Amino acid sequence: MTVLNKDRFLIIYAQNTTCYAAFRTGFSDQSHFTNFFTAFIGISPGAYRDIVISRTNC
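and the corresponding structure tokens:
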């Protein structure tokens, strides 16, 4: 599982905090993780989670 796939899983399906996802995927702090995630996905981890959850709660 790639880092980004693991990040997305931890943020959405495991209902974990961004800090927990950062720690579990090897980032030194939440800020570094958020910058990495935002650069590759295009939105913040929290916004990503909100979008996915809103789409699944029709």
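(Above: one complete record from the training split.) Residues 30-41 form the longest helix (12 residues).
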